Predict the 3D structure of the following.
Amino acid sequence: MAGKIEPAVILVVDDDEVFLQATRALLEREGHTVLTASDGEAGLAAINHQPPDLVVLDIEMPGMSGLELLSRLKPAVRVPVIVVSGREAESDRVLAFDLGADDYVVKPFLLREFAARVRAALRRARAGTEVTYRFDTLEIRVAARDVTLDGEPVALSRREFDLLAYLASRAGEALSREQLLREVWQSSGDWQDTATVTEHIRRIRRKIEPDPAQPRWIHAVRNVGYRFEPG
Amino acid sequence: MPVVTSGGRGSIDESVLRQLIDDLGDDDVAQISAVFAADARRQSRAVLAAQESDDAEGAARAAHQLKSASGFVGAAALAGLCAEVDAVAQRHELHAARSLALRLAEEAERVADEITIAVAQLSRPVRP
C-alpha cells in the first residue's frame, strides 16, 4: 500500500471479532505492531499502562462504551484516537469529537481509506510536539500536555488543551471558529456546531484569564473568531 | 453451481471479497470469513432469542454488530435485514417482528455456509 510511515504501536479496542481480525491484518501488513482489547475496561487499562501511538476505538461496546473510555482518558495521555462506529448520526460524531476523538469512521469502511486515515493520524501526532510556549506567566508545554499559570498547574480537558495549544501556536492571528473546528476537532461547520468552539473558549478563559470578562490572552475578533494575544 | 456472484446477486458480493483478498491476502481473509460465519450464526440466534423475549436492547445490539460485519464481507442482504431488525427494535416493535427475525436467521445461515466456499473459490489461482 502507498504512503509509507514509520511503524507504530496501535491498540484496537472493539468487541467485534471480525473487525479486530481485519484491522489487525491490515495494520500488520503496514508494518505496525497491533495490540487488541475486546472491551472498554481492558482498553482503558492498556492505554493507561503503556499509551500506544494510536488507538482505534469502537464506541458501541457493552459495559464501558468507547465514549466512556474517551471521557476517562487522562488529559496527560496524548494519544490520537480514531473512533469507528456503525452509527452515522451527527450527534454521535459530535459527541465523539467533543470527547477528544481525532477522526470518526463509519463501518463498514474501505480498508485502504482506513489505512490512509491511520497514516494521517500518526503523521499529525508526530509533527512538532517538542514545543513550549511561554507568555509571561502562562506556559504551555505541548509534548507534556501541561499548562501552568504563575507556576501553578492548570487542569484542562484534552480538547481544551488542544484548542489552547493551537491558538498559542498561531499567536497574533485571527482564527475563525470554522478553522478551529477543522484544525482542532478535524471537523466542519457543515455537521458540527461552531458553538462547540465558543463553549471551549469560555471554559479555557475561566481557567487561565485573571478576568474572563476582559480576557488578557484569548480575544474575540468580531465576525471572525478568536485571537491569542501574546501580550 | 458457483455460489459467488457479482453485482449483488446471491448472498455475497464477489467484488467485496476480492478487494478484501487484495488488501489482506488469502490466509487472513480465510480466517476472517471463518470468524464471520461463526459470528453470523451466533448473532442471528441472539436476535431470535431476543425477539422471543421482546428484548429490544439485546436484539438491537446483536443486529447492529452483525450489520457492520455483514457489510464488511459483502453480505448486503444480511446487512439490510440487520438494519431492519435494529430499526424495529429501536421503535419497540420487536414483539411483532417474528418473520423478520426468521428471515435474518435464514440469511445468516446461508451466508455462513457460502462465505468460506466463496473465499476458497476466489483464492484459487487462475489457470493459464
Q: What stands out?
A: The interface with chain B takes residues 1, 15-19, 21-22, 25-26, 29, 60, 62, 86, 107-108, 110-112 of chain A (CB under 8 Å). Helices of chain A lie at 17-29, 40-49, 66-72, 90-98, 111-126, 158-169, 177-185, 195-208. Residues 113 and 176 of chain A are 29 Å apart (CA to CA). Chain A is about 40% helix and 20% strand.
